[in-house]
Write a structure and sequence with these properties.
single chain; about 350 residues; mainly alpha
């Protein structure tokens, strides 16, 4: 869909569907959320977007958009060495203490505690600045990815320009969410550093694990409490911002209205999205290993698994449209009647063909 003018909004409702002035410009109250049939429609949307016809340039453009989105979301699970803890080689102190290398590291940290804390503060400032930048880029990418799937094209410049207002509103939501989680993160990190340095010298590794368990547990609890809010923002608030505009407050009110009227369906929607994310994560890991880790590079990774990213966003849009025609974002191709069937062999379009030429009756 081409932009007819700089201010063109493909999601503006037709003139005939604009509510009367008494509605203050608000769209009709949403119906009930329904996930029935959304998976099949989402698959058809993904297939039309990426496979009919196949276009490698379109895949790369969409991969770049998804890469922007993943900057603030961490992407999907990629193979790492998080669970492959390297062996702490070297001898032990008395057979039960930490290895020599681990003990030397602890001694150096204790001797340079002020340096370590100063470096941690400086690193935290840099990480914070990068985090804000990544959240902003991720908000732009989130809106661009939804619009690309909905309108079935990957003209990056158009998506970047047309989603500016919605992306800034969504960035505000992400910053509010970060403002809630960041103090908890800083508090638990300070708590963890304090607990780490308070462990007596010569203690074994298990003592450090028990000392760090409480702050890590608090951080996990906070993350679990914020996860549903993040889900609502990404899967309900973001499409509503793209569809209606009007700022964060009005669309968050719409989001909460959907939750109140369709709480059970929203929970089911959450569970299905978790299942999709699980399958997608497994597929992404397989894709990385199947390409000899080439598929782990930025943008390349998102391009290789583009169908999964397109499907999960199409699923969100298809579920949202169950609220009513005003909530539809996917611009389906207009229906065209099938071509007329060819006449049977030996007949013309208006009856039997004059063949073979019979002689005129005498």
């Amino acid at each position: 869909m081409q932009s007819a003018s700089p201010g063109f909004n493909p999601y503006a409702p037709p003139v005939a569907s604009v509510p009367p002035p008494g509605g203050a410009g608000e769209p009709p109250r949403p119906g009930s959320l329904n996930v029935d049939g959304a998976i099949g429609r989402a698959y058809d949307t993904m297939r039309a977007f990426l496979l009919q016809p196949f276009n490698l340039g379109k895949w790369f453009a969409f991969g770049f958009i998804v890469w922007l989105c993943d900057l603030g979301e961490g992407g999907q699970g990629l193979p790492t060495n998080v669970f492959n803890i390297p062996g702490l080689g070297g001898g032990s102190h008395g057979g039960s203490g930490p290895s020599a290398d681990f003990g030397d590291l602890l001694d150096w940290l204790r001797d340079h505690e002020a340096t370590v804390l100063g470096a941690a503060v400086a690193g935290g400032v840099v990480v914070l600045a990068l985090g804000v930048l990544f959240l902003w880029l991720s908000a732009r990418g989130t809106m661009m990815a939804l619009r690309a799937v909905a309108l079935n094209h990957t003209r990056v410049g158009e998506h970047w320009n047309e989603t500016r207002e919605a992306a800034w509103s969504y960035f505000g939501f992400r910053m509010l969410l970060a403002a809630i989680g960041f103090p908890a993160l800083v508090g638990t990190v300070v708590w963890g550093v304090y607990a780490f340095f308070r462990v007596p010298s010569g203690a074994d590794l298990l003592d450090y694990v028990w000392a760090l368990a409480p702050p890590i547990g608090v951080l996990l609890v906070v993350s679990l409490l914020l996860a549903p809010i993040h889900f609502l923002g990404r899967n309900l608030l973001a499409p509503l911002l793209l569809r209606f505009g009007g700022g964060l407050r009005a669309n968050w009110a719409r989001t909460m209205g959907i939750v109140r009227t369709s709480f059970g369906a929203v929970v089911l929607f959450l569970l299905v999205r978790m299942a999709i994310a699980l399958v997608q994560g497994i597929a992404e890991v397989i894709a990385v290993y199947a390409t000899c880790c080439i598929g782990a590079f930025p943008v390349v990774h998102q391009t290789v698994v583009a169908p999964f990213h397109a499907f999960e966003r199409a699923y969100t849009l298809r579920v949202l449209e169950s609220l009513g025609p005003e909530y539809k974002l996917v611009a389906d191709a207009p229906w065209q009647p099938p071509p007329p069937a060819a006449p049977p062999y030996g007949q013309g379009p208006y009856g039997p063909a004059p063949y073979p030429p019979y002689p005129p009756p005498r």
